[in-house]
């Protein structure tokens, strides 16, 4: 027998969804552009109180974006809950949430140890058909850290089976090294080495190209 969902819960979820879209934009917009926490962090008075109440509703419904916005607003209970969940070592912790929480907490209070959560996700062995988005988020997020293990993991990810993981690993390295040109497309020879295939088993030829890309990146690092 399926569990019953009360009409009240449905109403609360609908109320949260409407407010979230009105405040931050559509789900696609948030996914593509990131959550614009500035939409709530500068609020004052009753408007801020209303936003906090709505975000706490979203948090009670398990919405990661509500946690993110509340943390950006300095909500101590939310920040403590996020850190406790990261520290719990839950094997069923969704990797996308793990990456998001670690990045948010690092922005609030920089802590190089939080990179371990991104590294764990990035190093996850992937196979065709598995979700790749959390690993892309991890590769992107590691540009915000500066440890040697982070750099080694990004260099290894340049040979990842998924194109977008390779792409963001390269760009994160360029950002970390403060390269004059930090977009991968501004390095056409390097870009060609890591293009395609996408989510397919790498051939010996692919692996040779990725190894050459890694070699060029290491040479670039030596100049910065």
For the structure shown, list the relevant keywords.
ARM-type_fold, 66% helix, ARM-like, HEAT repeat-containing protein
Could you characterize what this model shows?
This is HEAT repeat-containing protein. InterPro entries: ARM-like (IPR011989), ARM-type_fold (IPR016024). This protein is mostly helical and 224 residues long. The protein has a domain at 114-223. It has 13 helices and no strands. It has helices spanning 7-24, 27-33, 38-41, 45-60, 64-72, 76-87, 95-108, 115-122, 133-141, 148-157, 163-176, 188-194, 204-222. Helix 1 (7-24) packs across helix 4 (45-60). It is elongated, with a radius of gyration of 20 Å. The model has no long low-confidence stretch (mean pLDDT 91).
The number of helices is: 13
Low-confidence blocks of residues: none
Largest sheet: none
**In percent terms, what proportion of residues is strand?**
under 5%
Helix percentage range: 55-70%
Average pLDDT confidence is: 91
Organism: Nannocystis exedens
Protein name: HEAT repeat-containing protein
Sequence-ordered SSE layout with sheet pairings:
Blueprint: H1 7-24, H2 27-33, H3 38-41, H4 45-60, H5 64-72, H6 76-87, H7 95-108, H8 115-122, H9 133-141, H10 148-157, H11 163-176, H12 188-194, H13 204-222
Helix pairs in contact: 1-4, 4-5, 5-7, 6-7, 7-8, 7-9, 8-9, 8-10, 9-11, 10-11, 12-13
Organism: Nannocystis exedens
InterPro entries: ARM-like, ARM-type_fold
Protein name: HEAT repeat-containing protein
Compact summary:
The chain is mostly helical.
């Amino acid at each position: 027998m399926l569990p019953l969902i009360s009409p009240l819960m449905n109403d609360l979820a609908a109320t949260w969804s409407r407010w979230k879209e009105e405040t931050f934009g559509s789900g696609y917009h948030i996914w593509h552009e990131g959550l614009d926490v500035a939409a709530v962090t500068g609020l004052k008075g009753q408007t801020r109180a209303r936003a906090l109440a709505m975000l706490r509703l979203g948090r009670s419904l398990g919405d990661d974006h509500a946690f993110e916005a509340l943390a950006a607003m300095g909500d101590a209970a939310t920040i403590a809950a996020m850190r406790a969940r990261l520290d719990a070592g839950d094997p069923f912790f969704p990797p996308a949430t793990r990456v998001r929480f670690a990045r948010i907490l690092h922005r609030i209070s920089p802590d190089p140890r939080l990179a371990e959560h991104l590294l764990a996700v990035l190093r996850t062995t992937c196979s065709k058909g598995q979700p790749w988005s959390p690993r892309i988020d991890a590769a992107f997020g590691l540009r915000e850290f500066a440890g040697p293990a982070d750099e080694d993991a990004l260099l290894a990810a340049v040979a990842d089976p998924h194109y977008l993981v390779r792409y963001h690993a390269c760009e994160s390295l360029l950002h970390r090294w403060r390269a004059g040109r930090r977009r991968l497309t501004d390095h056409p020879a390097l870009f060609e080495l890591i293009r395609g295939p996408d989510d397919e088993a790498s051939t010996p030829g692919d692996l040779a190209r990725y190894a050459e890309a890694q070699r060029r990146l290491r040479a670039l690092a030596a100049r910065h």
